[in-house]
Structures are given as C-alpha cells and as structure tokens.
Amino acid sequence: MWRNLINSLQADRKRGEYRLKFKLLLDNTPYVTPGKSLNELQVLFMGHDCFEALTGQEIQNIYEQHQAGLIEKAKRAFIELMLEHAEIFAQVHSVSPMATITQQQVREMVEILQEDSRYKALDRLDQERRLMLLQHLGFVHCPLRDHCPAYPACMDSVVSIPWGSQAYLFH
Hints:
Elements: H1 2-27, H2 38-45, H3 49-53, H4 56-84, H5 86-95, H6 103-113, H7 117-120, H8 126-141, H9 155-158, H10 166-169
C-alpha cells in the first residue's frame, strides 16, 4: 500500500509538471492568439511530451483557461486603444449630443483604429470587439458608472458619495 501511495503521488506530481509545461508551451507559441481554437493548433504541439502525456480533457481545460486570459488581456488592450483615441469618440459626440450615431461614423472610427495591433488582436472575436466599440461609444455619449470601461474600478464606484449628501457639493 505504501509503495502504491508513493507511486500515485509521484504520478500526480509528474502530471502537474506536464500541465505546467503545456501552459508554458502555450505562453511561448506565438500562433496561439485570442479566439483561435485548439483544433487549429494541435499539430504544433504533437511530439511534445507535455502534450502527449496529458488527457484530451486536461489539454482542453488548460487551453480554455489560457484563451480566457489571452482574450481578457486583448480586451483590456483594446479598451486602452479606444481611450488613447478619445478624440474620435468625442468628435462624434460634439457633432450633436442628441443625434443618432450612424454606421458611417462607426466605420470611420474603425478605419482609424484598425491599423493598430490591439485592434487586430481581436480579429477572431469581431462581434465582441464591435460590441466593445459600441459600448464605449455609448459610455462617451451617456457616461454611466456601470458602463465605464474601468468598471468596477471606475472612480465613481470607488469614490462613492451617498445620494443625500450630493446636494452639499454643488452649493
């Protein structure tokens, strides 16, 4: 029993090492980009001991976690890109604060942003990128705490003022 326990613990440790190696392999493979499926990349990992030793479910779980991190990082970078180009969003707002934003105006914004690598990083997630762009545009035109790109770390949330005491600030 003791030997079986030792063997089991060593096998678990080795599987943990393989998981870590596979995660590092994903980190160091430039072809792993946000939104790219594991099926598209599997051929790149064949022959690596960490890939061969893990089960399909383990590989899928590690890849999904890695993708979630890549997507989140790409989204934050895209938000940063939009904040850096605040003037294009403000121009739309300054034309007429109450006007409806046209598809042409959105296309013009995209033309300005699309050359940046932070825009291109979300090419495989075009719908999410478009939604983020429209949400950002909505926030510029109607700034609400819940729509802030930094939410929940938005300064309006961090420095919350009780509603009853706001009147004193403006007198």
